Amino acid sequence: MAWLTDAEAKAIRKTDIGPPHFGQFLPPVLKKNYGKWKYHERIDGGTMVHVGESGDKVFTVRVASPRILSTETIREMLDIADKHCDGYIRFTTRNNVEFMTPDEKKVDGLKKDLKAKGFAIGGIGPGISNMVHTQGWIHCHSACTDASGMVKAIMDELFPYFDGSKTLPAKTRLAMACCVNMCGAVHCSDIAVVAVHRKVPEINHDLLKNMCEIPTTIASCPTRAISPDPAKKSVKINAEKCMYCGNCFTVCPPIDIHNPENDGVAIVVGGKIGSLRTGPKFSKLAIPFLYNETPRWPKVVDAIKNILDVYAKNARKHERLGEWIERVGWERFFSLTGIEFTHQHIDDFTFMRDTMRTSAAFKY
Fold first, then answer.
1. 40: which strand partners?
2. Residue 318: is its pLDDT beyond 50?
3. What is the pLDDT of residues 51-65, one digit of tens each?
4. Is 235 exposed, middle or buried (CB count within 10 Å of its CB: 0-12, 13-18, 19+)?
5. Which DSSP symbol is given to 104?
6. Is 133 buried (19+), middle (13-18) or exposed (0-12) by CB count in 10 A?
7. What does the pLDDT read at residue 66?
């Protein structure tokens, strides 16, 4: 595979529009072996080695990050990378941080320094990786729950599946989104928490007519639930079409979606991005609603641990959670996990034609 030199890559990006070419930031050993890797092996729960056709090796140590990082934490990571990895560091799409070195003798010292700074090593192989999540109450205007607090509570309970002391049939990806706009990858994770509003937004008509553009507000609704209300110089909402997504609140704050007494979370399962064995899958509803129980969300944590334990006991080796569910059938999944099947699991939404179950066949 032809590779761009640093000069060629820089020449492509002569302006400040768009990101620089990623080739500028790869360690030399990765540039040399790009597209020519022979195999890789997992050494332990947080370490793996890639072997190139040339015989070159790259050892990777993965640690979790809290996603929202302070400058001090990033500097600590970079100091360790300077000491052991020639200054190279990599952030994954699930907020893991990978330290890579071609020198096997540096691995033990790298791990020692990471542990001394309190970084959790793990996330490689048949277990759970770092939990990707969204902003939460602190940073997001439309959040229905907190992110950092819930993720902390979940990962405290499931940490043995992260550091490799306990394993699962296959890798398992967890995610958490603070609202149904889902900037947290919950639609393609094995188990995910998605926070939900449950009430039609309340409209402050006096503020709306002075603060919001009516056409923009109407256009923000994905289900066409919002229409003009000329008499009030405002808008009105069709409750039958509203799915409580909060898009309208994003463009027009006088349409308030928040309702602390009724906001909470749902749990979805079975999604994945990879195409190994079976194609990518969207997550599907498992538990329709659990109330926010700050600060530790005990029912949410117990529900996720229950699903993981049942999956670990019944799935075959290398079988992702969604693949196991499809093999045994959703009826069996609800039976084994003890999750109640309710009317919320039946997709009768206005625009559900693409997801409607059109077959009468049941798979047991």
1. 50
2. yes
3. 999 999 999 999 999
4. buried
5. G
6. buried
7. 85
Contact residues for 188 (Cβ-Cβ < 8 A; gap 6+): 271, 272, 273, 280, 281, 282, 283
| The pair of three-digit structure tokens given for residue 189, joined into one six-digit string | 């994770």
Structure confidence at residue 6 (pLDDT): 67
Helix axes 298-314, 148-163, angle to 10 degrees: 30
CB-neighbour burial class of residue 83 (10 A; exposed 0-12, middle 13-18, buried 19+):
middle
Tokens 């909060």, located at residue = 246
Mean of the per-residue pLDDT values of the chain:
90
Rounded to whole angstroms, the Cα distance separating 331 from 311 reads 14
Question: 1-26, pLDDT tens digit by residue?
Answer: 456 666 766 666 566 677 777 888 88
Determine how β-strand 191-196 pairs with β-strand 174-177.
parallel
What is the reported pTM? 0.87
Count of all residues that appear for the chain in the document? 364
Alpha carbon of 302 to those of 237, 290, 297, 299, 309: distances in Å? 37, 11, 9, 5, 10
pLDDT in tens, 142-167: 899 999 899 999 999 999 999 999 99
d(CA 206, CA 247): 20
Report the distance separating Cα 230 and Cα 228, nearest Å.
Answer: 6
Of 81, 178, 165, nearest to 123 by C-alpha is: 165
Helical H runs in 191-237? 205-211, 214-219
Give residue for tokens 């140590």: 61
Q: Average of pLDDT values for 298-305?
A: 97
Cβ pair 49, 58 in contact under 8 A = yes
Cα–Cα distance, 30 to 153 (Å, whole number): 37
